[in-house]
């Protein structure tokens, strides 16, 4: 297809729309590659929203797009190969994104399609805690009702990509498709490997013009650097939406702006469907269920968690210890240290709590279980993986993981209690259900893990001698000035304080904690033993 360079963008868009109906998929993609290469950003700007929607489908789920969640290489090898090449992080579509990024274009994204807690917060004129939304909320014209986010091209592309996991309903027959074989799942893996590398740095964007590389086109209005935040987000951090503050980020942070954006978009779109307030309301037996994730959704989140463990644990040896935390550390290394505790932990905890409480009592819960167990075992994804001992038994979990266990205490203890409660209501005669109990028992039986969890509980249950006057330092609103590196809060060295602040940030300061090694949980374990069917002696022996 030959397009004269001087034609109007509207005509270019009309021509592409016509071709999308009349031309085969391979030819359309070939034409798009040429259009992206030949046309200036001014004209490509007009086709970008349509092209993104035509690939990932519409936000209301009516338009299917390329149906990446069902596209498999072994079923449709030609279409699969073309789509993966076009959407590859180093491919033509991302080249278009960077071409538009360099010109500072913005695209409206309707707030109404954001996850429930985010949408509610913005509609109430309260700025969400994630820096992803700062400086982006657009007020409607006088008399208008719709609120929009003004997103740069990379953000807009990733919002659509991430949300298509949720907005696009599976087609008939999709239940028999293995998620890990589909184009969408494999693209998630490629994007994670590219933008959250475990080795080296994030690769710069390819040049959008012939002859030599171009620098990474960072947003001209930098996003809120994640380093501006304290360790935890609470309701005290809420600020009115009119107080969106500009940020003068350190230029060095531009090196990883795509990495930060990708992680925040994935976490917000896939995990942020429950707030602490909503979670507390859901404890009522009369509460109506809200967002319900699918098994496919959970499998993709597990992929994200496994990669994040590998990413976070790929810190160079000299940068692992807190004493090495200095201004000489690169932004990418800082981000590796901050990614899980600052962005993932709270939203994942609420997501898992909801799944444990509302997922059907059948074998499909295995997907949720494995996601949880993957998060609990970061040592499985570290460069020096836990090796098996010579007699086949798991080796002792190293003490180097004690801080992770302590600072994720509730994900070990409270969710363990939640699992016991589920197991007692489950048909354990079913081998698949019995196997889930065995899987949990095997993970928690790893040598030294129980001791580390018990130590964490002891730290939490210590008398609060100095917490009240320290609390102000932790739970105040973040500052919005300073550079990317200088805005990190002082390291908290009091281990007991770290554990307490973790629990309070996830459950609130009036939480009622049930010790995992206390009498109540021992009673639950005894009940489970009584309910254990004799049909599975092989599991008991193991």
From TrEMBL:
Annotated GO biological process: ceramide biosynthetic process; glycerophospholipid catabolic process; sphingomyelin catabolic process
Alphabetical keyword list: Membrane, Transmembrane, Transmembrane helix
Subcellular location: Membrane
Chief site of localization: membrane
Pfam families, per the entry: mit_SMPDase
GO cellular component terms attached to this protein's record: membrane
UniProt KW Transmembrane helix keyword: yes
InterPro entries in the record: Sphingomy_SMPD4
Molecular function terms from GO: sphingomyelin phosphodiesterase D activity
UniProt keyword Transmembrane helix present: yes
Membrane association type: Single-pass membrane protein
Superkingdom: Eukaryota
PANTHER family: SPHINGOMYELIN PHOSPHODIESTERASE 4 (PTHR12988:SF6)
Protein name: Sphingomyelin phosphodiesterase 4
